[in-house]
Amino acid sequence: MQKISIVGAGRVGETTAQILAEEELCREIALYDVREDVSEGVALDIFQTAPFFEFDCRLTGSNDPAVMAGSDLVVVTAGFPRKPGMSRSDVLAANVAIIDEVTDHILAHAPHASILVVSNPVDTLTYRIAQRTGWARSRVFGQAGVLDASRMAAFIAEETGFSALDITTIVLGGHGDTMVPMPRYCTINGVPVSNFIAPERLDAIIERTRKGGAEILALRKNSSAYDAPAAAVAAMVDAISNDRKRLMPCVALLEGEYGERDIAMGVPCVLDESGLARVVELELDDRERQDFEHSVAAVRADIQRLAEL
Ligand SMILES: NC(=O)c1ccc[n+]([C@@H]2O[C@H](COP(=O)([O-])OP(=O)(O)OC[C@H]3O[C@@H](n4cnc5c(N)ncnc54)[C@H](O)[C@@H]3O)[C@@H](O)[C@H]2O)c1
Ligand SMILES: O=C(O)C[C@H](O)C(=O)O
């Protein structure tokens, strides 16, 4: 990929820029933020790490959205993070206004880009951007499940003592307390995780995964998570940039898959150079179907609120 823009040079945006540069996932990174001078400072600071991390990708920053011109991909991290005690939906009203403005800038300056949405509540804001751009779902998608699955993998690694490298997990549904961790598909190098963890301990891991963002927020106090979220974004960008055809849980517009449409939420998707190439349908058992529908209802409630904002 030639150029990636990152909107929002805050914690997630800055950390994402650093990883994309270190991994040389494109030739040019542009950071755009409404705060004057901040994105210039972030871009310059990261560029000065080039000799240590041995990259020659260029970085620029500006509070002029025209800096996004010519982008192949725009990563949207602009907006308020929640504070302790809040749900992600509690920042919907504040973030919709920001996201609408950002979307209009992308339409004006980067009309050929794909958009990877990170700002919360990510399912509803991905839906909003898809509506406002009218672009195909292959070009507008969000990050949530890659992060949630990495949290679940970390908890399984802690519980079992196995290397995190060998743990495969998948989390579907909306990126909220109703998310749907899928233990049936979790393995340790192909061996079902249920071989190693007692059912009640696995239930505790599922619950901890659902509250994974709140746990970091409570520990960090002044900030929600950004290291693992940025790494999750970078993993998705790597799949797209290198045309890897990876199967990853992404926030996708549903067009009849899982019996749903007119909603965006987390489902397994294939990422390749075209962006979100396709949605993969898994057969859900009764319990999974029930949990998935519960999550659909939660995301739909937020989408309905959009009409009032
Ligand atoms: N999807 C996920 O998994 C995930 C993970 C972590 C964080 N998030 C979300 O990402 C968002 C950013 O989190 P953060 O910790 O980086 O917050 P932050 O406050 O550190 O950064 C947000 C940045 O957005 C900028 N901004 C605000 N309005 C803007 C506008 N109109 N145009 C351009 N930039 C604008 C701010 O100036 C700020 O620099 C939050 O909504 C958070 O909840 C999502
Ligand atoms: O928890 C949050 O609000 C931020 C993010 O969605 C996360 O899961 O870390």
TrEMBL record:
Residues that, per the record, bind substrate: 82, 88, 120, 151
Lactate/malate dehydrogenase C-terminal domain mapped to chain residues: 147-306
NCBIfam families on file: MalateDH_bact, PRK06223.1
Amino acids binding NAD(+): 8-13, 33, 95, 118-120
Name of the protein in question: Malate dehydrogenase
Active-site residue numbers: 175
Its job: Catalyzes the reversible oxidation of malate to oxaloacetate.
Ion transport is among the record's keywords: no
The entry's keywords: NAD, Oxidoreductase, Tricarboxylic acid cycle
Catalytic activity field: (S)-malate + NAD(+) = oxaloacetate + NADH + H(+)
Pfam families registered for this protein in UniProt: Ldh_1_C, Ldh_1_N
UniProt-listed Enzyme Commission number(s): 1.1.1.37
Family: Belongs to the LDH/MDH superfamily. MDH type 3 family.
Residue ranges of every copy of the Lactate/malate dehydrogenase N-terminal domain listed in the record: 3-142
Keyword Glycosyltransferase belongs to the record: no
GN (gene name): mdh
